């Protein structure tokens, strides 16, 4: 796996598609790795002539782990957030956005289509707002503006996200745990087949798992605040994709994001949750490819 040194850390990445094609930077979500972007989804984009850059965020996969910041106390952080007390984290989403643009620098890419999912969507928003000269288009998937007052996850989704394996030293137990978690937050109308989901999870767990790294990413999200003012400054063509049945980041968060970005297209997908189900690989890659080519009809806002 190739790596690039940037922003004081090491980022693991891979490249797919036509080396001369327009680049698309894919930014993964909380605790996820570059392999979380499904193969069929990626093929749908490379078949359209694009060059894909996938990478592991800091504290995920094979990229640098920020262990010197320790493992944060998420329960204390949640208590502080209830009373608007300051949160301190080792890094923020703005640092992670700088990581991503540093990766583009290392690859000699001046400008790219920026696509992010969940936490990756937040990072993508920051890149589009802070680094407009690096952004051809923005696609924010199942993400949020971070504004106070937006609805949060369902109780079941929240419990699933913050649960822990019964035996974190038993790899099969860890795989079982993540399978249950992804089922809880997945798409009710488009469930991922059990064998496919288990294979995806097993590949991820065996490649790398860092619970302390995920906890630090949660703190980065929590400490990065409201992006409303930043979203209003985005000038790149923007597409916001959100599932109507997302239990982790409710669809109201996607609607708010699209409302704040000037000229953004909102595309809601009925029955989609907080995942990339195989049944929607073609839909999602098709929407993004059309958006990157400037071919997406603004009027077509629901799947």
Task: Tell me what the structure shows.
- This protein is α/β, with parallel strands linked by helices.
- The protein has a single domain, classed as Alpha/Beta hydrolase fold, catalytic domain (Rossmann fold), CATH 3.40.50.
- 39% of the residues lie in helices and 16% in strands.
- Strands 1-2-4-3-5-6-7-8 form an eight-stranded mixed β-sheet, sandwiched between helices.
- Strand 7, helix 10 and strand 8 form a beta-alpha-beta unit.
- Helix 1 packs parallel to helix 11, helix 5 runs antiparallel to helix 6 and helix 6 crosses helix 7.
- The model has no long low-confidence stretch (mean pLDDT 93).
Give structural attributes:
alpha/beta, Rossmann fold, 8-stranded mixed β-sheet
Q: Give the full name of the CATH homologous superfamily.
A: Alpha/Beta hydrolase fold, catalytic domain
Instruction: Quote the beta fraction.
Output: 15-25%
Averaged pLDDT, please? 93
CATH class annotation: Alpha Beta
Overall tally of structural domains: 1
The secondary-structure class comes to: alpha/beta
The CATH architecture category equals 3-Layer(aba) Sandwich
Percentage of residues in helical conformation: 25-40%
Give the helix tally. 11
What is the 3D form? globular
Q: How far apart, in Å, are the first and last alpha carbons?
A: 36 Å
Radius of gyration: 18 Å
Low-confidence stretches: none
Give the biggest beta sheet. 8 strands, mixed
**Strand adjacency order, main sheet:** 1-2-4-3-5-6-7-8
Number of strands: 8
- CATH fold title: Rossmann fold
């Amino acid at each position: 796996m190739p790596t690039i040194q940037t922003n004081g850390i090491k980022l693991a990445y891979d490249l797919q598609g036509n080396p001369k094609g327009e680049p698309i930077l894919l930014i993964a979500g909380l605790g996820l790795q570059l392999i979380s972007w499904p193969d069929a989804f990626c093929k749908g984009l490379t078949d359209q002539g694009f060059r894909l850059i996938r990478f592991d965020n800091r504290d995920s996969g094979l990229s640098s782990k920020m262990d010197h910041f320790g493992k944060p106390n998420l329960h204390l952080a949640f208590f502080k957030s209830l009373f608007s007390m300051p949160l301190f984290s080792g890094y923020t989403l703005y640092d992670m956005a700088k990581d991503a643009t540093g990766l583009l620098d290392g690859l000699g890419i001046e400008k790219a289509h920026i696509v992010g999912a969940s936490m990756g969507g937040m990072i993508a928003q920051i890149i589009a707002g802070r680094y407009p000269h690096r952004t051809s288009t923005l696609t924010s998937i199942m993400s949020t503006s971070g504004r106070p007052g937006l609805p949060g996850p369902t109780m079941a989704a929240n419990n699933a996200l913050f649960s822990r394996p019964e035996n974190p030293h038993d790899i099969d137990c860890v795989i079982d745990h993540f399978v249950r978690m992804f089922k809880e937050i997945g798409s009710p109308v488009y469930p991922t087949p059990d064998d496919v989901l288990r294979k995806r999870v097993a590949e991820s767990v065996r490649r790398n798992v860092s619970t302390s790294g995920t906890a630090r990413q949660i703190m980065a999200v929590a400490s990065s605040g409201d992006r409303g003012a930043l979203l209003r400054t985005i000038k790149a063509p923007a597409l916001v994709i959100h599932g109507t049945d997302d239990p982790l980041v409710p669809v109201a968060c996607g609607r708010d994001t699209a409302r704040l970005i000037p000229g953004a297209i909102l595309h809601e997908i009925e029955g989609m949750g907080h995942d990339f189900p195989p049944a929607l690989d073609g839909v999602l890659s098709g929407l993004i490819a059309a958006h990157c080519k400037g071919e997406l009809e603004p009027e077509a806002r629901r799947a």
